[in-house]
Amino acid sequence: MSAAANTHNKLFNACPFNILGEETLRQRKRALSQHGHIGTIQEMYSPDGITLGYYSLKSEKGGSVVFSNQQPFLQLSYTLSGNKSYYVNSGKTVLASMGRQQYNYLFFPEQEIQLSWQPQEPLEIFELGVSPGLLLNFMPEEHPLFDVFQKSVQDNTPAPLSKNNLPLQANISTILFDMLNCPLEGRYMQLFIKAKTIELLAIQLTHYEQMAGVSVKDSSLRKLKKDDIDRMYLARDIITKNINSPCTLIDLSHQVGTNDAYLKSHFKQVFGTTVYGYLQNIKMTHARELLAEGKSVSEVAYLSGYKHTAHFTRAFKKHFGFSPGIMKR
């Protein structure tokens, strides 16, 4: 195990995991308060070869979980807040690391995988596992990720499919929370989860093609130059650091060295949403973190820049599909 991993407090050890081991849809939710770990865990297992995990944690000395995979599968891994890393080879090799508002596709073979996170840092993540067969049913052979995925399956070797982590789009977060708060039960819930998983795959595979500049017919979505992409990431950083005092589109475009028309077009191409949409997503994500820490709805509304709690409540419910009061409960 690496020196970094050695400092982590093991939350579980070698949890058995078989993505095809469920005969009926099963779900569990529990609060966690042990050995310096505090938070909430929600997990869902479907007979369709789909698993969904939501983990909102804060660990006094960091933490790690070792999964003993009994079937190979693809993990669609999302980080809303905090930082996480995956290790292989008994914790000696870093497979992938992800920071706030990033996601990636990870292939996990039949071996132990260690997930680790940092101490004293709120971690909020989704992990969506799908069977290789399910993904291959929907990923076209000409897709830029197809060869990487197929080779990983054939060689049975762990790998991130994308060399770089991708920016987490607001519509992806919304779908994940829709799945987590599904109002249906039984077979209808199973159907809902499968449909949302396919919707996510459609959005994400298209997003990757747009980022890579391939298989895009619309000339407005042509491949951007590296300098254009760097400007959009700089714009994102400025937005993130000034969520309560955002500048105008014109001011923002001048700060990153472009004009407002290119800013609007290129920002949406890179992040899948408008500048305002991204700002709203950051504000709502931060508001959810504050609610999870125990702050009242009225206090969070004020800290999020809303003069009236009712306006904040409507905005929160429109964004996530449930009211902030549910977070408090």
Characteristic terms for this protein:
about 325 residues; alpha+beta; 8-stranded antiparallel sheet
Structure description:
- The protein has 329 residues and is an alpha+beta fold.
- It is 42% helix and 27% strand.
- It contains twelve helices and 13 strands.
- Strands 2, 3, 4, 6, 9, 11, 12 and 13 form an eight-stranded antiparallel beta sheet that branches. A five-stranded mixed beta sheet has the order 1-5-10-7-8, with no helix packed on it.
- Helix 4 runs antiparallel to helix 5.
- The longest helix has 27 residues, at 186-212.
- The chain is globular and about 50 Å long.
- The model is unreliable at 1-8 and 215-221 (pLDDT under 50).
Straight-line distance between termini: 39 Å
Number of strands: 13
User: Can you tell me the overall shape?
Assistant: globular
Unreliable residue stretches = 1-8, 215-221
Content-based structural category: alpha+beta
Mean pLDDT: 84
Q: Give, in order, the helices and strands.
A: HEEEEEEEEEEEHHEEHHHHHHHHH
The largest sheet, given as strand count, sense and whether it forms a barrel, is: 8 strands, antiparallel
Q: Tally the helices.
A: 12
Radius of gyration from CA coordinates: 20 Å
